[in-house]
Amino acid sequence: MKPVLWLGDSLGRLREFPVDARHDLGYRLELVQSDDRGAKEAMSEKVRIERGSGNVFLDLGFSKAEAENLRLRSQLMRQIDAYYRESGMTQAAAAKALGLTQPRLNALLKGRLHQFSLDALVNIASNAGLNVRLVVKKAA
User: Fold this and answer.
1) Which are the contacts of 139, defined by CB distance < 8 A and separation ≥ 6?
2) Angular region, 59: left φ>0, alpha ψ -120 to 50, beta rest
3) Mean pLDDT in runs of 10 for the chain (140 residues)?
4) What pLDDT shows up at residue 44?
5) From the centroid of its chain, how far is CA 62?
6) Helices 64-87 and 91-98 meet at what angle, rounded to 10?
7) pLDDT of amino acid 27
8) Smallest Cα–Cα separation from 52: which of 34, 78, 74?
9) Dist. CA 15–CA 61, nearest whole Å
């Protein structure tokens, strides 16, 4: 995963956003962070750069426990999104296969992280035929 570099006071400003907005923003940032197609942009002026922690949700000011929960939910949502896109199904057909309504699948595909619990996403992933594993190890 690529590190996030926060420019200027951007991280502080983002931490002031409402919780639901930070959930959705974190999902989008993690999506970009995991995408190998990202490109560097040239900058003509000096700005302060702050290296991210590796967990955009932690960077956005969530507690360690909540940041980890949000990161896991985001990763599951990305895998379910990939399943849907690779399936070639319509949203209606995919929603039925996943045991969801079409509006609920649409919310998932739009990254509405705050609308899905970890438990719900595990169930949806299971309905997609995905094997979900949880690895627990001592924190560094």
Assistant:
1) none
2) alpha
3) 80 87 85 59 52 88 93 95 95 96 96 95 97 88
4) 40
5) 14
6) 120
7) 85
8) 34
9) 6
Tokens encoding 31 = 């999506």
Beta strands in 1-140 (DSSP E): 5-7, 49-51
At 90 the pLDDT is 95
Contact present, 124 and 80 (Cβ < 8 Å): yes
Report the pLDDT value the prediction gives residue 35, as an integer from 0 to 100: 66
- Specify burial of residue 129 (Cβ count, 10 A radius: 0-12, 13-18, 19+): exposed
Token pair for 30? 């993690």
Domain residue ranges of the chain, discontinuous segments joined by +:
5-127
Predicted local confidence at residue 103, as pLDDT: 97
How many Cβ atoms sit within 10 Å of the Cβ of residue 63? 10
Identify the residue whose tokens are 């507690």: 63
Would you say 38 and 82 are in contact if contact means Cβ atoms under 8 Å apart? no
d(CA 108, CA 81) in angstroms, rounded, equals 8
